[in-house]
Amino acid sequence: MHAASMLVLSIVFLMSVNPAISYCPTSGIYLRHRGRCYYNGSYFWDSRIISRRVDCRINLATLSGGEWIGPAGKMPCPGDKTNIRCSLYQGTAPLRISLYIPNYGGKYLLPSGDGWYKCCLPTNCSDPNTNIIFANIFRYAQIESFYAADLPSDMTVYPQKYKVHCTKIGHVSYSISLDLGSSTFVSYTNCNDGNNSPCP
Ligand SMILES: *[C@@H]1O[C@H](CO)[C@@H](O)[C@H](O)[C@H]1NC(C)=O
Ligand SMILES: *[C@@H]1O[C@H](CO)[C@@H](O)[C@H](O)[C@H]1NC(C)=O
Questions:
Q1: What spacing in Å lies between the alpha carbon of 13 and ligand 1's midpoint?
Q2: What is d(CA 199, CA 138) in angstroms, rounded to the nearest whole number?
Q3: CATH 2.60.40.10 spans which residues of the chain?
Q4: Contact, 123 vs 129, CB < 8 A?
Q5: How far apart are CA 97 and CA 57, in angstroms?
Q6: Is the CB of 66 under 6 A from ligand 1?
Q7: What are the C-alpha distances in Å from 142 to residues 111, 163, 197?
Q8: N or C: which end of the chain has fewer CB within 10 A?
Q9: Span of the secretion signal (predicted)?
Q10: If we measure between CA atoms, which residue out of 55, 60, 124, 69 comes closest to residue 95?
Q11: Are 99 and 116 in contact (CB under 8 A)?
């Protein structure tokens, strides 16, 4: 895969790549999905969030704002953008503001919604005293079109191997890195399509 404008990055993902935290925090802001809590900066595959919420939570019952801001801007909440729906819950603690893809019409995340989502609670991101956490929601449909055969057939068994295939378009020079929280898995800088740099 050395086509000039295509970047293919293969990474072996073990469970440790998007590890669940073994306990859920009792204070502060945190992410929760399918009954588990996740670190700041965790990745969520769009097909895994169809009708299964990614919650941004805080152990408070009173909301005085709160929002998710994604690659396509502020998420209307309640509301929909880039096929992702935002919902809001407050009542007893923890309050939560959640993202998921509604399970109808076979919809997946739109390309404009692929990327980093910033959650702020219990007040909006414009409040300097708010709590902030990040999640990366990425598209599956795009990956499927390249290497469906490499994907695990049973998505519920861990550890799993994933290949992440990125198609780069645009400028010939680029940098790429894959981070999890504060640890960097892969990092290439000063890459260029036109030379034989060791970049993928
Ligand atoms: C803060 O968030 C709340 C709830 O999403 C919203 O109703 C309000 O308009 C937001 N305020 C600002 C200044 O963005
Ligand atoms: C998550 O990471 C961002 C950026 O590094 C930071 O500003 C934020 O405080 C972190 N949130 C938590 C809960 O650690």
A1: 37
A2: 22
A3: 20-138
A4: yes
A5: 7
A6: yes
A7: 9, 12, 26
A8: N
A9: 1-22
A10: 60
A11: no
- Residue located via tokens 């009954």: 35
pTM for the structure as a whole = 0.67
Please name the residue whose Cα sits nearest to atom 9 of ligand 1.
65
Residue at 156: amino acid letter: T
Q: Put the strands of the sheet holding 42-45 in their side by side order.
A: 42-45, 131-138, 115-121, 67-70, 73-74
Burial of 99 (0-12, 13-18, 19+ CB in 10 A): buried
Distances (CA, A) of 24 to 59, 69, 134: 11, 23, 16
- Cβ-proximal residues to 112 (8 Å cutoff; 6+ apart), any chain: 71, 72, 82
CB of 123 within 6 A of ligand 1: the answer is no
Whole-number Å distance between alpha carbons of 97 and 133: 12
Place of tokens 């550890």: 159
Give the tokens for residue 66.
């709160």
Grouping H, G, I as helix, E, B as strand and the rest as coil, residue 48 is helix
Q: Which residue has the tokens 């036109």?
A: 194
88-140 pLDDT, tens digit per residue, is 998 888 999 999 999 988 889 999 999 999 999 999 999 999 999 999 999 86
Strands 95-100 and 115-121: unpaired
CATH class held by domain 20-138: mainly beta
CA of 70 relative to ligand 2 center, distance in Å: 16
